Amino acid sequence: MTSLSNAFSNLSSTPRMPALFVGHGSPMNAILDNEYSRSWRKIGESLPTPKAILCVSAHWMTRGTTLVHIGRNPKTIHDFGGFPPELFAQQYNAPGAPDFAQATIDLLQESHVEGDDRWGLDHGAWSVLIQMFPRADIPVFQLSLDLSKGLADHFKLAAELRALREKGVLIIGSGNIVHNLRALNFDGQVFDWAVEFDRYMADAIEARDVGKVLDAGSIGRAAALSHPTVEHFLPLLYPLAVMDKADDLSFFNDTIDLGSISMRSFVLS
Question: What is the pTM assigned to this prediction?
């Protein structure tokens, strides 16, 4: 083994940590008291305390390389526009997790992975964590989404992360099962295609049918409208790939917001 492989072996073992998929929706959920933020707080209070959190967010996209943030003090990235000053004023000053980040690089030996110290925590990560773990005292690091990879390649890469659950790492995928900003509907009406795709995915996840998840595009119109671009779908694959046969599955926030944003989330524990 190389010296790099020692980063993982040096981590102490723990009981298996849960894994989460969180439908993050609007950045405003970071500061609002609503059904979504209350659910995130409740989940945070119910989880065992992680040694570190690995977040795979829809908002860190790369091409040709998967990056792992190795910095000690990740910055809070306000990667959005048109929101009130109160939201831009938010800071989530959690420490980084360079040791866990290096261990992650070691685990991903089958993939082209590099360390990065320029990113930080985008709103796919911090807008959820600021509600779930408001004290910001748990080290956090992110893994990018390489958009040059197909769904099966993302799933294969994600499966290599499974051992982190036995090292105290809470793995969170942050995206949305349905995400079409061009179809937002502020009068509360939910689109039929959004309901169809959300139900298809819920059934596939509940059945633990990964093949059905990876083949979601086959249902045609509902899939195309639910994901005009793929980045909010990809984080779903990461908790599914690290799922253990012994895990219990629980859905939460299983509603559709603004007509075309599924907030459906789940915890594996």
Answer: 0.96
